[in-house]
Amino acid sequence: xxxxxxxxxxxxxxxxxxxxxSWRYVLGVFETNSLNAGYDRISTPAFENTALFTRSVGEAxxxxxxxxxxxxxxxxxxxxxxxxxxAAVVRAYLENGLASxxxxxxxxxxxxxxxxxxxxxxxxxxxxxxxxxxxxxxxPLIDAQVISLAARFYRQLGIxxxxxxxxxxxxxxxxxxxxxxxDYLQAHTTKLPELVQAQLKSNPLRxxxxxxxxxxSIIAGAPQVIDYLDKASAKHFSxxxxxxxxxxxxxxxxxxxxxxxxxxxxxxxxxxxxHQGMQNxxxxxxxxxxxxxxxxxxxxxxxxxxxxxxxxxxxxAKSKSAMPxxxxxxxxxxxxxxxxxxxxxxxxxxxLDGGIASICELPARNLADQxxxxxxxxxxxxxxxxxxxxxxxxxxxxxxTSGTQEMVPRAKIASxxxxxxxx
Length: 423
Ligand code: AMP
Description:
binds adenosine monophosphate; about 425 residues; 8-stranded mixed β-sheet; 5-stranded mixed β-sheet; 15 helices; alpha+beta; 16 strands
């Protein structure tokens, strides 16, 4: 095979058949659960004004400082491919007047994201997130309901997870904690790796989820954000945990969990899968009560999450739970002779018009070859038309599992198939 002239860009992938079937299944489960819980879909452009992300995600965050795909358009505007899902939804919520709708406003989204990260298993430069955002309620119930929505989704897919949860306080509490953490880490400066030294100035909270083994014991002794919470945040957090207990959702308190975005203000969480080593976060989110105001709206409490679709698919592929067939296997139409072939093509169109998955193929094959092809496609039934059937206006209906055959009037075949497939 000659080498193609072009390859896909590093860190991206193609979805080739039959892989999209699993995508459709996973996104379908997500969408059904979101709709059931009263969410409506929102979709925003692939790119936004760069300032939206610098302002919301934070200039010092890794996503903004290192990973954005930023470019100038022909008018000299600085635009960036969306690196995360929340800021654009907040922008759209404000711009489209969704803020005037009855609260809470509940939105879900399924979109690609782009980050210039070092590609490895489970880490791509273009990846899909499925997520939700809820605007306009500060109630702990919202936090628990949203976390429960994500947990239900994993449960329905048969994915084992561990839910990690932590809480950041209000702005004053976060400032106080940040100062304590910096003091503590500065006392260890001689032992801090270079990257951590830099983070100490720009994004000290992020040091807590460093995976560098040299940081393990230092982090273990670090002050914990939970001890610096303001009263209201502490009360809110314990109410959320109590609700999760009531809902039967197990969690682990994780004092090191901070996540990489600046806008979180309260409880935050991550779901960790069981299969993927370092890239084991299969979703995460939290409360961000200050972001709407930061982006020009009225103060509006909000809560949301984003789940990584590729990592969920990878978990599914490795887990033992069988993926349900996302699409019905087609009926296979078999014909013998030229006239019968023409009739089989007409019948195929009729079945497709009636919403019955069916395949009728061109190559002239003998009966045995055609039936072998039907078995290969795992067709539940094949329909056979030969000279005799053509004359009698009938079709042979063959059950591919039992091998039994029967004659069905041509005019009744579509309704007969529908009846059988519905059973
Ligand atoms: P984040 O908000 O950055 O925690 O992202 C939410 C989820 O998206 C993560 O838990 C991952 O499952 C997924 N994710 C984040 N970055 C990537 C990436 N580069 N490639 C694939 N999935 C990702």
